Amino acid sequence: MSRISAARAEQLIALRRALHRVPELGFAEVKTQALLLDVIHKHATDRVEVRTWKTGILVRVRGRVGARTLAYRADIDGLPITEQTGLPYASEHVGMMHACGHDMHMAIAIGVLLDVIEEPLDDHVLVVFQPAEEGPGGALPMMDSAPFLSWWPDVICALHIAPKLPVGTVSTRPGVFFADTSELTIDVYGVGGHAAFPHDTVDAIVVAAALVGHIQTIVARSVNPLDAAVISLGTIQGGTRQNIIADHVQVTGTIRTLRQETLTVIKQKIEAIVDGVTKAHGARGQIDYGLNYVHVVNDRACSQQFEQWVRQDGRYAYIESDIAMTGEDFGYFVQRIPGMMFWLGVDTPYGLHHAQIAPCEDAIAVGVDVVASFFRQWSARLV
Fold first, then answer.
1. How many helical (H) and strand (E) elements, i.e. helices and strands, does the chain have?
2. CA geometry: angle at 183 spanning 58 and 180, to 5°?
3. How many angstroms separate the CA atoms of 108 and 3, rounded?
């Protein structure tokens, strides 16, 4: 039997829609924080302690006995994507959207929080609303903040919506779950001029085109075929009009690997290619790796306990997950705290970061029930 009533499910769906309307970028989640705090304060009891850090929130519900702390983390930021869902509760912020499901994550976290407030565990429960997961990265500085350090958890878990999985399905695996990631920005500087006199210029577009071709050979020819890696170039920007040879082009993308050593090799190859190609053309190149996240490694004991509980409970389907090349700064939490992340099925044809993604809201009640019920099992079994 679900821990979540129909009335509570409707309440959480309404909250999710309110959050969906006001997506905000990392460390600018002001309206988001205010919405969450309003709900939290309305349901707070004398067991509930609330602290803020930047645009994030930490809420601790004191348990009945003992000093152990179980934590649940939800990310709260949106993406710079123009929504195309046509939903009546679509984003009101131009050029921004909750296209990665963080609105769902927040609603589920509130549901877990309310469940624990109404029926406290023996252990303390810490619910973490973390800003800036999509960038510039909120997990690491939040972990080093005074509020988090004073409420340091013994274990931690999180979930991420999975568009391709049906509602009622969860999926995870012990060990490596998500990849190491690095942003990539390459600026090519040439010499601009009139299109009729190319010999007096250094065409940054030609140089950038050569770089793109060479960079796409790195994984195929410099990485062991048994060692997964991805380099995806997402944007090329340069030039001002058709009869002017561009003096600057910027290429951006992302690097994903399952081992830090592989990421290092790829970066070394990129640097050699940029140096060689730009010099050969008489241009200049500059590289910025921007945001870097470590891979998410699920604690074996935690993830096995989760699988065992889901299978024994029998209300939800469990699928062993493949390793995903997704990036997530939750990896910093499980680098220092035993814990795990799992996929939650939301049954939508559109993938993460798609302008038309519309997760099935029935998954909110499933997510709350899974996390809240597992926390009660976890609290009883945690040694």
1. 11, 17
2. 70
3. 13
Identify the pLDDT of residue 20. Answer: 98
Q: Give me the residue label for tokens 């099935």.
A: 360
Q: Say how far apart CA 120 and CA 185 lie, in whole Å.
A: 48
| Residue ranges in the chain modelled with pLDDT below 70 | 381-383
pLDDT for 380 equals 74
Rounded-to-integer distance, Cα 188 and Cα 206, Å: 10
Distance separating alpha carbons of residues 199 and 247, to the nearest angstrom: 13
Domains of the chain: 6-178+297-381 (3.40.630.10), 180-292 (3.30.70.360)
Judge if the upstream peptide bond of residue 163 is cis by omega within 30 degrees of 0. Answer: no
190-222: per-residue pLDDT in tens? 999 999 999 999 999 999 999 999 999 999 999
DSSP states of 173-202: -SEEEE-EEEEEEEEEE-B-EETT-GGGSB
Nearest Cα neighbor of 310 from 382, 379, 383, 378 is 378
pLDDT of residue 378: 87
| H-helix or E-strand spanning residue 342 | strand 339-345
Cβ within 8 Å of residue 254, ≥6 positions away: 181, 182, 183, 184, 230, 231, 232, 234, 327
CA angle (76 as vertex; 70, 80 as ends), nearest 5:
155
Distance CA 299, CA 303 (A): 6
Q: Provide the annotated active-site residues.
A: 75, 134
The alpha carbon torsion through 314, 317, 318, 321 (nearest 10 deg) reads 180
Q: What is the pLDDT of residue 87?
A: 98
Give dist(CA 32, CA 15) in Å, integer.
Answer: 11
The secondary structure of the chain in percent helix, strand, coil, rounded to multiples of 5, reads 35, 25, 35
Distances (CA, A) of 126 to 16, 57, 70, 71, 100: 21, 10, 6, 4, 23
Give the number of other CB atoms < 10 A from CB of residue 271.
12
| pLDDT value of residue 382 | 60
The C-alpha atoms of residue 344 and residue 16 are separated, in whole angstroms, by 16
Cα dihedral sign for 264, 269, 272, 273?
Answer: negative
172 in Cβ contact with 81 (< 8 Å): no
The Cα-based distances of 57 to 16, 35, 40 in angstroms read 17, 11, 10
